[in-house]
Amino acid sequence: MTRIAYLGPAGTFTEAAARRFDLPDPDFVPVDSPAAALDAVRAGEAEFAVVAIENSVDGAVTSTSDALVEAGVQILAETELDIAFAIMSRRGFSLDDASSLTTHPVAYQQVKGWISEHLPGVEFVSASSNAAAARMVADGEADVAAAPERAAELFDLEIHARGVADMDSARTRFVLVGPVRVPPARTGNDRTSIVFQTPNEPGTLVAILQEFAYRGVDMSRIESRPTRQEPNTYNFFVDLVGHVDDAPVAEAMRGVYLRASWVRFLGSWPKASGALAPVDQTRIADAEAWVRAAREGQTQTEGER
Amino acid sequence: MTRIAYLGPAGTFTEAAARRFDLPDPDFVPVDSPAAALDAVRAGEAEFAVVAIENSVDGAVTSTSDALVEAGVQILAETELDIAFAIMSRRGFSLDDASSLTTHPVAYQQVKGWISEHLPGVEFVSASSNAAAARMVADGEADVAAAPERAAELFDLEIHARGVADMDSARTRFVLVGPVRVPPARTGNDRTSIVFQTPNEPGTLVAILQEFAYRGVDMSRIESRPTRQEPNTYNFFVDLVGHVDDAPVAEAMRGVYLRASWVRFLGSWPKASGALAPVDQTRIADAEAWVRAAREGQTQTEGER
User: Fold this and answer.
1) In CATH, what class is B85-164?
2) Using one digit for the tens of pLDDT, what is the confidence trace for B73-92?
3) Which residues, listed in sequence order, are joined to residue B191 by a DSSP beta bridge?
4) Which of A59, A280, A102, A13 lies closest to B59, judged by CA?
5) What are the residue boundaries of the Prephenate dehydratase domain, all occurrences included (chains A, B) (predicted)?
6) What confidence tens digit (pLDDT) does each residue in B279-293 have?
7) Cβ neighbours, 10 Å, residue A29
């Protein structure tokens, strides 16, 4: 059995994402937060965790970012899901009678346009997950839930509308997380993630980002989060285009190590989508060959662009 | 009457912050979100809005950031509140019988250590504000609320614990927002905020941040948020140390204008705390004098550091 911890209960988008990774003989273990999913891996109670990391409408999933800071886990793979909701109630309930609607707060951001148009004036009640929202409706704690279609099956609810999403392009990226290991092999279309803190001096953040820029390593995401240890100190999360086995990424990471006050490698893994220009490795390979040639007394000691 | 829109109902920390600004003859108008508060200013329904912008534990208040992107408002002042909660219930209720606790989700992040120690196993119920949480307890929708002390008075609740906060240093920064105008005068301890989007090319974010770094303008905050217009496009929010009337800040802003695909000035205003090294204006004033001297045919045409 492969134990996979995910934000439960059954019926969440995270469960759908977890099933996408096609792990052998899976045993899906619902837990109640992204932090609990990662802690299950850290404690050896699960081989893997699946957590949402970024949403195209609401940005980074901050609870996941915060939970990744602590040692012992590494991102191994990702998948992206189109996010659209079904509007559901107990059987026989008319939407005209609805006075409350429940869903996860991030989900609420993605349907509130539809809600204000179709269910004006309903009170929003926060749920710990979309599937928990469906369960709350089944239990009579709210009239209507916005949740994945599968949750209606699981909790025997009636669906009133499908494919509800204020933005057509709403997508959430989920990552597969496991214990620290040799990263999955470079594919040429990879993502690398690191988190770092900067010394308390002006300009250090820019100096670190410059390590990527002048090696042509593209940043696909930057996010700052309070460390919660000292006021005005931040963890900076940066996603890079490329793999730690790409020489420019490795060189940039060395540069970050030298400038940051603290840094952790969060993983290199294949991207779920988007054929990107592969990282240009020629110049750095040339530079290494040139330094090696100089050390070895070879005659090939010139370099030109 | 000075109409001041804030995240209501009465009894929220935002109301306490709004009272701190000491506006003449205030009429506090509760609304149900930071966006609604800013829209009230845009529509001329309120002279000012007071909104939370950053919390030392949970980071930027993303709903406020998103609401600031649209034109028509400007940040004019700020204040910081220590955030600590009172734990309250209906009169005569014993905490031993508590099965549910309600508060705003951001507040919950700041008390959940205390909750898991003192009220293990209670269910968290999300509230739209801390004061709404107190009202929910008064209405019997939850057993216990974590809310500002004043909310207990307003809703006639009994306080069981005061000063509850997992981190001693938890503070929230609130800003006073009004229609666009000439910014408040430079004090020498100011903050400037801008939001921009970058052209879709690698390295442009770093190039923009470099505009600050090489002029010695310190960034006190950076945050990225999806634009919600196109996938993978972001609004970057940057807070700078200094005033738009400080020459290095003005120069850096000109540089950002030239590099960004879109930029909006969100305001320059006095900082609430922290005596910072004033922005060094000498070099840029010298540089301007030198260029003017050259134009005017003066003999003072040399420059040295």
Assistant:
1) alpha beta
2) 999 999 999 888 999 999 99
3) B241, B269
4) A59
5) 3-179
6) 566 666 676 676 677
7) 18
Q: Is B232 on the interface with A (CB under 8 A)?
A: yes
Report the candidate in B4, B5, B9, B6 with the shortest Cα–Cα distance to residue B129. Answer: B9
B120 in contact with chain A, both atoms CB, cutoff 8 A: no
B105 at A interface, C-beta within 8 A:
yes
Q: Which of B7, B33, B9 is nearest to B133 (CA)?
A: B9
CB distance A236 to A264 below 8 Å: no
Report the residue of chain B nearest A220, measured CA to CA. B232
Long-range contacts of B30-35 (CB under 8 A, 24+ apart): B30/B5, B30/B6, B31/B5, B31/B6, B31/B7, B32/B7, B32/B8, B32/B128, B33/B7, B33/B63, B33/B67, B34/B7, B34/B61, B34/B63, B34/B64, B34/B67, B35/B63, B35/B66, B35/B67
A:B CB pairs within 8 Å: 87
Q: Which of A62, A202, A231 lies closest to B59 in CB terms?
A: A62
Give pLDDT tens digits along chain A (305 positions).
999 999 888 888 899 999 999 999 999 999 988 999 999 999 999 999 999 999 887 788 888 999 999 999 999 999 999 888 999 999 999 999 999 999 988 788 889 899 999 999 899 888 878 888 999 999 999 999 999 988 999 999 999 999 998 877 788 999 999 999 999 999 999 999 999 999 988 788 999 999 998 888 988 888 999 888 877 789 999 999 999 989 899 889 888 988 999 999 999 999 987 555 455 666 666 766 766 776 776 655 565 55
CATH H-level, domain A182-305: superfamily: ACT domain (3.30.70.260)
pLDDT at A303: 57
Could you state, in order of their start, the residue ranges of all structural domains in chain B?
1-81+169-181, 85-164, 183-305
Q: Do A167 and B128 touch (CB under 8 A)?
A: no
Check: complex ipTM more than 0.90:
no
Q: Is A116 on the interface with B (CB under 8 A)?
A: no
Nearest CA of chain A to the CA of B223: how many Å?
6
A209 touches chain B (CB under 8 A): yes
Q: Which of B55, B56, B226 sits opposite A57 (nearest CB)?
A: B226
Contact B56 A206 (CB under 8 A): no
CATH topology of domain A1-81+170-181: D-Maltodextrin-Binding Protein; domain 2 (3.40.190)
